[in-house]
Amino acid sequence: MSLDESFAEIIAGTGIQVGNASVARLAGSLSARALTAADLTAFYQARIERLNPELRAVIAISGDAAGEAEASDERRANGAGRGPLDGIPVLVKDNISAAGMPATAGSPALMHAADPDAFLVTRLRAAGAVIIGKANLSEWANFRSRPSSSGLSTLGGQAVNPHGSGRSPSGSSSGSAVAVAAGLAPLAVGTETDGSIVSPSGVCGIVGIKPTLGLISRSGVVPISAAQDTAGPMARTVADAAALLTVLAGRDETDPATERAVAEACDYTAFLRPGGLDGARLGVWRDPSAKADARTAAILESAIVTLRDAGAEIVDPVQLADIDKLGEPEYAALTHEFKHDINAYLAGVGGDHPADLAGLIAFNTGNEAVVLNHFGQELFEAAEATSGDMADAGYREARESAARIARSGLDGALTADKLDAVIALTGHAAWLIDHVLGDYHSWGSSSPAAVSGYPSITVPAGSVSGLPVGLSFIGAAWSEPRLIGLAHDFELALAARSPGGPAGVAASRQR
User: pTM score > 0.90 for this model?
Assistant: First the structure.
């Protein structure tokens, strides 16, 4: 069955096709009693059982999902519904803890870890969402080996892009992207350190929001770096991603980075207004896609025409000063931070698991035939070789240098040209999966926002031979409301130009 044929499947009792199953439409059917949360959850569980053996997007199904769905139906029957996500199935990436489902990061080393709900999962449950299961990921969020194959984990196998046979889903929120793109769940939560939400979203043809650092709690999330890690929503449309972000965002007293979220978090669906591009100033950052082939480059040119026709003022090109110098200090800082942060995380997680990074390395070596059968653990070893001391002068210089380059580059462009956002192609189309040489990922635009802690949103912008390519909107810290308005209007404008555009946009337009 092709992806298009699969999307035509009807959710019983609703007339809604899977490819158009927006949060608004599903919530409307639930409210009208045309559909129960129990039946909706069972529907998506059946799709997972049928399609996941090929896609490998889901690493675990929750045994509590049916009960959560029944509780949602009972609340609604009693007039106590909790909002638009009540009864909506959500997948969470398997580096996020959920009671009864340990955050494994795809590794058998954490199979017997025990931890309560991550703070963001607590917020999902409070909103009535049904945690249907855990999404597969690049093992250890793609921070174990170099090279590696995105979407590959020991526990979950190799996740596969649904848009092309043998194509990579990119990483590390690979399963989250594949699941949403293939209609295994209407919503998913991913995490990003650098590119791990926006890159898989881009190549799988969905919307991904990498929020400002501190808008969403990291408590209960397996870390790489407290300086860059964040969770974020992944969905078929900007409207659905905004609805999920509204629930995820908020203050967590155990995560100091979220202090400002008290003032900044809001109902992001309020910014889904047509006309968001009219009068907006957008700067085109061309450097990331300088190596793009002609068909990929044409997607950027077409997007610029769409944006301009929708009323945006285009500044083309803009430069992000010294961004080409970002990679070395970022890598030096991340290896150092990973040792510190993973050791602290493991010290606080219950259950049976290695006590620290050295223990993880020993576990992998002791289970080499299973865990290291395709790739090694070079990044683990590089991190272990650092001091892991946050006061280390060399480390502090690297982190400060990386942050300075990223922020001055983005701030300089945004301020000098009075921009609402910088736009760039998110990355190139999906490459073939290769378990010998690893990923062929030659360029992308994620690093400035990731290292600065600023927000970015990727939206499907076109395709090359049926393989999606995304356009990223990158803004200043805490500019999610503006970016969502811009991205939503671009999505609508693109759908108006291309009636066969991203599925679900027509439903979004009817909000």
Answer: yes
